[in-house]
Specification:
By secondary structure, the protein is α/β, with parallel strands linked by helices. The protein is built from eight helices and seven strands; from the N terminus they run αβαβαααβαββαββα.
């Protein structure tokens, strides 16, 4: 489908850019220009690092375009780039200190048949990524919605047997997400919250809280992607699923 879209764009004279991992992939050969993320080969069908690498590349592209257009000040660009440089250390810190929490969550929810993932703003696409990974790795049905849409349908599904994961980092929409969480708890829903470190407000009424380092709002997905991917992995392990090669799925892996 992506290749077909590129061919249509090129046929209409549109400049095409590719953000790809492999230097010899079909997409890199078809597009006019692009960026290689050079993250190394993905060994599993459920690719994970591709998502975070593409976010990092798109963030840098946005900074360049913002500076060239005059819509992003030099100070703001420097602030984002400084935060971006710290991301690898923050990711490593989180990964080194979270294993037991995810094993506990997997043990608690390994028999769940449905999950709901909710996020707002920059973190809604992360909810979608997490739902996909959970479905692939653990074979648990999972739906992702913008948290603002919860009242318009998904709220009818919530009961004590429906775990709900919220991405509730302290950003511009934090208070609205907290309001959504309270609505779920009022309906006896089980809540997992992804929160910012040193924010313990959610500890009082959520079943599990995953604390992440804070960063610039537009870079939050580089951190919030990790817990949704890890939860999928640990639930898959707890349910004895094939993590790297989910049933009924296939993928071609090109060597770098």
């Amino acid at each position: 489908d992506v290749v077909a879209a590129v061919k249509i764009a090129k046929a209409r004279g549109i400049l095409t850019l590719g953000i790809v991992n492999s230097t010899n992939s079909t997409l890199s050969n078809l597009t006019d220009a692009g960026i290689f993320t050079r993250g190394g080969q993905e060994f599993g069908v459920t690719s994970t690092k591709s998502f975070t690498l593409q976010i990092a590349v798109l963030a840098m592209m946005a900074i360049v375009l913002g500076r060239h257009s005059g819509k992003l000040s030099k100070e703001s660009a420097t602030e984002i780039l400084t935060a971006l440089e710290k991301i690898p250390d923050e990711q490593e810190k989180f990964l080194n200190n979270s294993k037991q929490l995810f094993e506990d969550m997997a043990k608690t929810y390994r028999y769940a048949t449905n999950f709901l993932y909710l996020g707002r703003g920059f973190n809604y696409p992360v909810a979608v990524e997490g739902a996909l990974k959970l479905t692939q790795m653990s074979y648990i049905h999972c739906e992702a919605y913008p948290a603002a849409e919860m009242k318009h349908g998904p709220i009818a599904l919530i009961d004590e047997f429906m775990p709900v994961l919220f991405i509730a980092t302290q950003d511009a929409v934090y208070d609205k997400v907290v309001s959504n969480i309270r609505e779920v708890k009022a309906r006896k829903g089980a809540v997992i919250a992804i929160a910012t470190e040193n924010n313990h407000e959610l500890d009082q009424f959520c079943d599990f809280v995953i604390h992440l380092p804070n960063t610039h709002d537009c870079l939050l997905p580089l951190l919030t992607a990790l817990p949704v991917q890890l939860l999928a992995y640990h639930l898959g392990v707890a349910r004895k699923c094939s993590i790297d090669h989910p049933r009924h799925q296939a993928k071609y892996f090109a060597n770098n």
